[in-house]
Design a protein that fits this description.
- The protein is an alpha+beta fold.
- The chain folds into five domains: 59 residues, Arc Repressor Mutant, subunit A, CATH 1.10.10; 65 residues, Beta Barrel (OB fold (Dihydrolipoamide Acetyltransferase, E2P)), CATH 2.40.50; 66 residues, OB fold (Dihydrolipoamide Acetyltransferase, E2P), CATH 2.40.50.700; 295 residues, no CATH class; 107 residues, Nucleic acid-binding proteins (OB fold (Dihydrolipoamide Acetyltransferase, E2P), Beta Barrel), CATH 2.40.50.
- The protein is 32% helix and 27% strand.
- A hairpin with a 7-residue loop joins strand 5 and strand 6.
- Helix 11 crosses helix 12 and helix 13 packs antiparallel against helix 15.
- The N and C termini lie far apart (86 Å).
């Protein structure tokens, strides 16, 4: 039987106008008696995948034609949820607690749309669970007399897991455990399971990492076969490896990275051209030489998708034999690379470029701090130490500023909001939270990598063959029109909100810079943006204002970059029609899978940072701080503390001076009688009321200026006493 699911779907969407039984479908597609068992299996597989839906009378139809939506359930701790449709650009569906049925957070479900309110919000109910999203649960163990239970760490899983006493694995009260679900919830009964692993007490810094790793199902240990393949790659670059590569070992090439970095996947070189132009070399570790398609190494890298970075821990995409050794561009070591060598004119415009398989030998390993101290502070000791590179660094700064100016001129949007760094002690506890430093060295590498990624994407596009791109879609028209309406009250106008251009948003950010409403408008704009993702559709990158963009520069830590490196080699050959179709299909899978793994990594990293911030505030109850509002909801306002970068919630129930009404479009709470307004970006003064390590949240209360002055004076006296001691 040659018929495929894609063909069945196409016919059912375009030519079949009602749900059909298997017998009717068999007749419609002219399936022979010999192929009927396989066709029935195909229909079953398509139903399980949610491509088609089985309804009463054993009939099958297209979900969207029956007011049904297939998607993932994203539950909320308060009991309701949203179904996120699989169909692109389709709006989420709200599901009330009573309409969730037996579904749990993460399940793939079929949802019936019951109604659409005046604002266009769809509401529905779960009619079928296609696939369970949770096989295991990480949580805290609590014993009982006749049974035990596990309280899920993920608060979106609202049911506790019942554990029969014979399946507790001798866990103790308060320990973090992994429980396997054996029975899913039915008829208002909680799910049941068994403890399969005891992780330890969550106050242990190693255990807290393990809890988040298990919660997000992030592979942290490499299988034996992967390690064996990695061991074979270890060692030094051989003469055979260098054959037919452009030898750049005689050129001044070096790396610039963070102080703690060990996986150096990019190095740079520069030369002044006649006429004032520049020749920039961006040399990227040739991971594709070692990680071949179909190997255990490749399958593991694909499954991980990306490296995951915690404040005190890294879960690499590749084993250390590759990420920190043979693929890392260490100084004084021969390394295989793919080099993009670009000639720019004196204004930073591209004249010509070439992409070559190369071998390099990095001369130095510089850090961002060292480069900044040389270029900004004129550090004499560092200038003497790196005397052979000073001219190159000055040239790089010059080119960086020209590239940045060109990018901004084209409409690229830079959200220059401060970020934080977590400082840990030897025990892995949060010692301090400081503002993340972004200096000229960061900007140099950032501009060079952006330029390289854009150039490689343009190169792939010109070849007119399947490729993988990093895309960022334009914001929804509805959100832009809401923003346009909102900023009018501040005296600003957003040009072309119905078909917004990046330049218009860039202009708005420039207008609000340094104004009181800058933070407010920045936050609202960021939340109006769509998420960047990977795709085989080359629609460009809205925020960067690039027509073509991809990820090429970090193959040690991102799988799409590795895929792009392979494409650059494949594009050199003439491809058959069959190979082009195969390539398109595999790249589409890589793009979708990598986008999912990237979001998973970001969620895990964010949760670890939030945990460290909560730990930092554990002994700060009663302390008073200045902050600003980062979010407004019907149940309260979120406040981030100045200079501490910790966010907490002021519950509306703690605001006792008035009844506060939530104004969604104005992003504000307004007092019914006092008319006092709280909105995003406003400065406020708060006191720390409660810190919950278990819930990973912090409660604040609002205080007056008078109370704040008392606190500041008390802190000053305390600091003076410390200095005297």
């Amino acid at each position: 039987m040659k018929i495929k699911s894609t063909h069945v779907l196409k016919v059912m969407r375009e030519s079949i106008h009602r749900p059909m039984t298997t017998k009717e479908l068999t007749k419609r597609f002219r399936i022979t008696s010999e192929d009927r068992p396989r066709f029935r299996r195909l229909i079953k597989e398509m139903t399980q995948a949610g491509h088609i839906v089985k309804i009463k009378g054993n009939r099958y139809g297209i979900p969207e034609k029956m007011n049904l939506v297939v998607g993932k359930l994203q539950a909320h701790p308060n009991g309701y949820g949203f179904v996120l449709p699989e169909v692109e650009n389709e709006k989420d569906i709200f599901v009330s607690p009573k309409n969730l049925g037996e579904a749990m957070h993460g399940d793939k479900v079929v949802c019936r749309v019951e109604r659409v309110d005046k604002g266009g919000r769809r509401e529905g109910s779960i009619v079928r669970i296609l696939e369970r999203g949770q096989k295991t649960i990480v949580g805290l163990y609590e014993p009982g007399k006749s049974f035990a239970y596990v309280i899920p760490d993920d608060k979106r899983i609202v049911q506790e897991i019942y554990i029969p006493l014979k399946y507790t694995k001798k866990a103790k009260r308060g320990q973090a455990v992994v429980a396997e679900i054996t029975t899913y919830p039915i008829h208002n009964r909680n799910p049941e399971g068994k403890v399969i692993e005891v992780l330890g007490y969550p106050t242990d810094s190693d255990v807290e990492v393990e809890v988040i790793i298990r919660k997000y199902d992030i592979p942290s240990r490499f299988p034996e076969m992967v390690i064996k393949e990695a061991d074979k790659c270890a060692g030094s670059v051989s003469k055979r490896d260098i054959n037919e590569r452009l030898d750049l070992r005689g050129i001044r090439i070096f790396t610039i990275d963070g102080e703690q970095a060990k996986d150096f996947d990019d190095a740079v070189s520069i030369k002044r051209l006649n006429g004032g132009g520049f020749r920039l070399g961006v040399h990227i570790a040739d991971v594709s030489h070692y990680v071949r398609p179909g190997t255990h190494l490749d399958k593991e890298a694909f499954e991980r998708g990306t490296s995951v970075y915690f404040p005190n821990h890294v879960i690499p995409m590749l084993p250390l034999q590759l990420s920190n050794e043979i693929c890392s561009l260490k100084p004084g070591e021969d390394r295989l690379t793919i080099s993009l060598i670009t000639d720019f004119d004196k204004n930073g415009e591209v004249l010509e470029y070439e992409i070559q398989d190369t071998v390099i030998r990095s001369q130095e390993r510089l850090t961002y701090t060292e480069v900044a101290n040389i270029l900004i502070n004129g550090d004499k000791g560092l200038i003497q130490r790196y005397s052979s590179l000073i001219d190159d660094l000055n040239l790089m700064e010059e080119l960086c500023l020209k590239l940045n100016k060109k990018r901004i001129r084209h409409g690229s949007i830079d959200f220059d909001l401060p970020e934080s760094d977590i400082i840990l002690d030897l025990q892995g506890r949060t010692e301090d939270i400081v503002i993340s430093q972004r200096n000229i060295a960061h900007r140099i590498i950032e501009e060079f990598m952006l330029s390289a990624n854009e150039r490689v994407a343009t190169h792939l596009c010109m070849l007119e063959k399947p490729a993988i791109y990093r895309i960022h879609n334009r914001p929804d028209q509805e959100k832009m029109e809401e923003l346009s309406e909102f900023i009018i009250s501040f005296g600003y106008h957003l040009k072309g909100a119905s078909r917004i251009q990046a330049k218009a948003l860039q202009r708005l950010l420039n207008q609000v810079k340094g104004k009181g409403e800058e933070r407010l408008i920045n936050h609202i704009l960021i939340r109006s943006m769509k998420q960047a993702e990977y795709s085989i559709e080359d629609i460009g990158h809205f925020c960067l204002a690039f027509d073509h963009y991809t990820h090429f520069t970090s193959p040690i830590r991102r799988y799409p970059d590795l895929a792009v490196h392979r494409l650059l080699r494949e594009k050199k050959r003439t491809l058959s029609t069959a190979r082009l179709e195969e390539l398109k299909s595999s790249l589409s899978e890589i793009a979708q899978h990598s986008s999912f793994k990237e979001r998973r990594a970001e969620d895990a990293e964010r949760e670890m940072v939030d945990l460290k911030k909560v730990q930092f505030m554990m002994d700060k109850i009663g302390e008073k701080y200045e902050g600003f509002i980062t979010g407004v909801t019907a149940f309260g306002i979120f406040v981030e503390l100045k200079d501490v970068f910790v966010e907490g919630l002021v519950h509306v129930t703690s605001m006792k001076d008035d009844y506060y009404i939530y104004q969604e479009k104005e992003h504000s709470l307004i007092g019914e009688h006092t008319r006092r307004v709280f909105r995003v970006g406003d400065s406020v003064k708060v006191k720390v009321e409660n810190v919950s390590l278990e819930k990973k949240d912090i409660d604040f209360s609002l205080i007056s200026n008078r109370d704040m002055r008392k606190t500041i004076n008390r802190r000053d006296r305390r600091d003076r006493r410390k200095n005297i001691k």
